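Appendix B.2, paired examples.
Example (i):
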Amino acid sequence: MRARVPGQVFSPGLSANWVLSVATARLLSGQPWPPPGGPGAGAGLVRGQGGTGASPGAGRVLCLTRRSFPSRSPPTLCAPAVLRCLSVCLFVIPSVSWPRQRVLMALELLRCGAVLAAPAGAALACCLVAAAVALRCWAARGLRRALNKTSRQQEVVENLGQAVRALRRLNQEVDVETVLALPLVQLAQKLKNKELSPEAVLYSYLGKAWEVTKETNCITNYLGDCKAQLQEVAQRHGEGGLLYGVPISIKECFLYKGQASTLGLRRNMDFLATEDSVVVRVLKKQGAIPFAHTNVPQSMFSYDCSNPIFGRTLNPLNTSKSPGGSSGGEGALIAGGGSILGLGTDIGGSIRFPAAFCGICGLKPTSNRISKRGLKNSVNGQLAFTTSVGPMARDVDSLALCLRALLCDYMFCLDSTVPPVPFREEIYASKKPLRIGYYESDMFTMPSPSMKRAVLEMKVLLEAAGHTLVPFTPPNVPRVVQTLIACGLFSDGGQALLENFKGDSVDPCLGDLTIILKMPNWFKRLIAFFLRPLFPRLAVFLHSLKSRSAGELWDIQHKIEEYRYSVISQWKRQHLDVVLAPMLSPALAINYPGKTSGSVSYTVLYNCLDFPAGVVPVSTVTLEDELALEQYQGYFGDIWDQMLQKGLKNSVGMPVSVQCVALPWQDELCLRFMREVERELQHKLHELHESRAVVQAGPLEFSLHDLNPGHKVHIKNFQHTGATQPSWEGPFQILFTTPTSTKIGEKDSWMHCSYVKRASSIETD
């Protein structure tokens, strides 16, 4: 037997270069090392004899390694210590799932180290060992995170399930479907009149929330002390409050005693709130029963909804679509029927995006109309744009009832920074015709075909109702979005936001935001310089993300203030009461919000202006809209426009919304306008379907989204042309008949939807 000499390891005649080549080739092509049959089996692979378990990819990888390790290497490379250390790095830990490029990088580093002396080679090998150990720990950490996320999701479901089973034993005679079908105003009235018990209502919504979160992952915490709140409410008798016995869900950022508001960040997991936020205390005072914290995107700087702690929330209308964000958990839970009223926050559209994507109503009030004390934020002290607290619900009257309950003396007492302005009933109840401005596009983000159609159709309906509509264009939106808004939000270069991610993983829903913010200012300017000729919008945005001095920040805030005054002046010159504006819809596909940051222009404009703005669903995406979307190119043709077009595809039947906007502190007028929009849709269907009238238009395309509660609908020759899972808004009793079946389904429960249907005849009463 030949004696082993330097340069030969594992098997006689195999040099270190060949062993490394074979082992790396097998490892990267998914084969074990050492190979079955011993190291000698690898020789066959190297020498073209097939080898045990050789794969087609092995030869390709072998070529790479052979280039990294030529057959004639310096003698210092053949030191057995270096080879053994490298073997530990690359082969002894085959379970580590790390990128192939890093393996090849290690090989290149070793090749460079070959020209060094033996001690330097040993030091390099030690570094590789340390890197391998670190990578193994990193992989194990990722696995633990995935397991922890799954366990937290299961824990929420189990806690809700236990609560539902406990209440079921005490409420066996409750007609759950009837309770869930009631609008908030009627539900509150029945609770006040003792026609329903708070316990029965809580049981009904807990059960539905349990079902919804199993499908959408929208709840992060079951607030178990809702039982104590239930007992306290039951003892109040005549002093129940406006929301007596009403179950309510709240966004995770609202502090709740004994619970952590994580914002999807691990640094917040161990900080439990010592007291409730002001709005939670006011809701409890008004008799509401908070029962769930709902999910948010990591750091809440996204209009998607996913984080590494609780995972991704899905849209209940179409699980391939985003529910919006950052109040995405609220939108999904309410749209799925698991909550009748929710509370969210909005700094760039965080109430309005989920409302539009999920087909519900939401209001962003004037920023300081409702107390923000006790809110958890990922960035504090940023005053260019301030957060608004607002309600989310199925209909506008529910939003008004919530605002009515919050704007009370108790809130003004708890937070003296909030102006003591109660809800002004006379404005909300007014019947005076409105002078309404409208626009189809902000000239920064091209509206989708369904967005444009929704605004124009609503214009016609409002004019028919006696309102006056005049064109109105907010001045210079592209400049405002690209410079003032981006500079105001990230005047520190995003450093305060990045602090949240230290030692944490970044969720994909944030897109490339954190990567861009980590770039030094000089590098941002350099990239912006090269992007400007081809993609001017992206170049300006990138340049706007640099850090600024205090003087520059003050100048930005002054320009924002001047812009606000200019818009108000234009508004008053045209004698407008309110404005009808587009709302980004339908819902984007999962992960696409992070790739289309510029599309927030329709919502963030009114955060910049601090105008109250609400969202009302008015239509659904049709097949014609979907076909027209194929021609969508956007105004700039850059990556944002391309990603927006892709994200909007495959949305037939998904809801489309509009925005209703008023001047600052005119929140009641904004709500009144939203109610006008909602009612005109209902009137349209009343005119289309007279009592017991039969419409013969076969086939007729229509939407059930706007029917009044209590309608009975008989659809003949039914064909579903929306998503695969039909869903209805109601309550309705819906009977389907086809030529081959007299009855294929009946619904008497509330489920939200806006799916387009086709039928040869429709009968309603």
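Example (ii):
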Amino acid sequence: MIDYKPFADGVTGVLHVKWGLALTSPLFIRGTTVAAFKNTSATSSKGRGDSLEINWDVDGEAYASKNKSYSQITDFNYVFEVNNGSVSVKYDIPASSVRGTLRSAAISRLIQLDDRHAFTISKFEEKTPEVKKFLTDQVSKAKERLQSKKDFWFDILSLFGLTLEIDENDTDPMTWAGRLKISTDISVNAGGNRLTYAGAEVPNSAGPGNITTNISVRNPLDRVSMGAKDGGLHNWLEMSEQQHVMIDMQILNPRKNDFKLLSLWKDDIDAGFIKFGGMTSQGRGKAKVTMENYNLYVSPKSPHHSFLTGLNKHDKALNSDLSGIWDGASVTLSELLGYANMA
């Protein structure tokens, strides 16, 4: 019987997790466009002049090539929204970025280094009979390993999903959606729309105003001379520290190891081991979990039903679409962790 797939017995429970993160260092998520930035006056030949300006709603590359006092600046990730018939733009943190960060953290902390490609299928340009047999053996070993449920790979792949198939004709591919759904929100920073550069406020910004941003600069060094590379100066927009990010997680059919993983993630975020976005090697993307909320909903068929009812605080009136359908309660991470560590 194949029971390693996450929803073999349907859905019997869900854990809603809400984390509020406060950035302790700037966060950078590269956008797909560049803006035009002026950081010197027309009469200043070098150094930072006293004329700061950013033209966000232009083709930054073309504008900078025609106006020598401007340079290109990499934008922060943004999205467009349609509200009441009008289009607006806002800076945004993709849920996929957070999801990828948490997945990588789980693998690096729980899986041995020489075992991290166990569920990556080999690639071949030509699928000869010998190659197909080799790939079939790879997939068979992967299925046997998940069937045993004896290591953290089972929990990670169950949580984040897997796509492992030989070709489009595979009748039993190892492909499924994970149990974890993530969404992000930075609207809590509404009104914080300042843009700064080297401590000075930058005027004339036509970009999104839903977060406070700052312009950072880096000049790569030549590895031989250790001098600044000619033309290597880079500017980019990043979300300022002390801004806030809300992360919502829904874990279907939660498992005890999920509770342990949540605790591990939280500790590693607070310690600065888990960093979000890009340029993390430069210290970007550090945060602290300043708010946390956990609501657990289970059906009578859930293996966690007795745990929830045993807390003597289950409440069917919690504000959720599941209220009145399943038993639910607001729980703490310490309660979940204590339950997960029980024999």
